[in-house]
Amino acid sequence: MNDKIKPAHQVGPVSAFFIPQVMQIGIGYLSFQQIITKYSQQDAWLASLISGALSLGILWVVLRLLENERQFGMPDLFSIHTRIFGRRIGTILNLFTVTHVLLFAIMSLRSYIEIVHVWVFPQMSMFLFSLIFCLIAWYIVSGGMRTIAGVCLLSFIYLVPLSILTLFIVPHAQFENLLPLVDHSPAALLKSCYELTHVYLGFELLLYVYPFISNPREARKWAFRSALTTVYFYTTTLILAIAYFSQGELQNTIWPTVAYWKSVRFPLVEHIDIIAIVLLLWATIPKVCLCSWIIARAVKFTVPKIKMKYSLIVILALMIAGTTMIHSGLQVKRLNDVYATYGVLIIYIYLPILLFCQWIKKKRGRSAAS
Question: What CA–CA distance (Å, rounded) separates 29 from 233?
């Protein structure tokens, strides 16, 4: 693949704000309160801050990896693997990381279908919905990175009202539910941090998008602003959930966010929860589009003769097959658990090791040159 991206195919640096934001905010926003409070109850907001701080540290690792690679050509994960480990091992590592991207897309799509089945259309055909959804994704991805970035921006705009809806529960919140403060052990907080890991995942896709963002120095600032905004968003939502529900109610409510959406009332408008769930479709479309584009680029990088427009059809067919093979809510939960474990392995363990290997490779190169 070419080492330089044409300016006509690049997006502005502000894309580094809303692309990771849209990747991180999704279906997990509806249920993470129940999961994270299982171990640390009213102190769960501390675990959210700790997880957010860790994600900021890993974002620094991601941006350092990309900036170090810029002097050698294309600053993306595919090129990093190939340069450091060689073509053969690099291809294996690319397959390892791209599998995580595929899991992310299938998990996002199937989780949204589960929400729609439970709250809106119980008899909806899973295959038909997946087929129509992937046809829309194919149309968007065929337009290239700029089209995908535009959809991400639209998604960000459409999700703003959902965050505003959360504020309507403030008058009903009992903030004494947050007491006593710091009443749990570090082990309990760490367990909650692990449970929250999959919610903060998504920013790592910058590893594949970064070459298409112009003005990298400005983009780095926007990336950190995005991460901080996500931490603020999830932490404030969690605090409001702890203040609104009792611990017993929170542990017995699968989707707490939907539960307090149901309590919101407007004149002449009923079922705000259903309207919000439909709007959440815009949180799923850009995830599937960007993941499909990344996997198609991986195929193009590995086998240059295969055009992206052909591999994209196979990729979306795999997503449809993977989605329709998961039949029950329990299987959806297991898929989320697998994705979370895979994400911890790649993001919090593999990427720091990769940065160390990159540093070793750089040191050896200097020694050989001298």
Answer: 10
Is residue 3 scored above 80 in pLDDT? no
Tell me the mean pLDDT in the region 32-39: 90
How many alpha carbons lie under 13 Å from residue 21 in its C-beta half-sphere?
A: 27
Q: pLDDT band for position 261 (50/70/90)?
A: confident
Residue 369 in this model has a pLDDT that exceeds 70: no
Is the residue at 324 inside a domain? Answer: yes
Q: How confident is the model at residue 296 (pLDDT cuts 50, 70, 90)?
A: very high
- Cα angle: 83, vertex 78, 28; to 5 degrees: 145
What total of structural domains would you count in the chain?
A: 1
Q: Where in the sequence is the domain holding 85, given as residue range(s)? A: 7-364
Does any domain span residue 369? Answer: no
Q: Which of helix, strand or coil describes residue 269? A: strand
What CATH number corresponds to the domain at position 209?
1.20.1740.10
The answer to whether residue 370 is domain-embedded is no
The helix-helix angle for 126-141 and 145-165 (nearest 10°) equals: 130
Residue 189 lies in a domain: yes
Taking the C-alpha atoms of residue 96 and residue 100, their distance in angstroms, rounded to an integer, is: 7
More reliable by pLDDT, 266 or 136: 136
Confirm if 15 and 217 have CB atoms less than 8 A apart. no
In this structure, which amino acid lies at residue 369?
Answer: A
SS (H, E, C) 101-136: HHHHHHHHHHHHHHHHHHHCCCCCCHHHHHHHHHHH
Q: Give the pTM.
A: 0.94
What average pLDDT does the chain have? 91
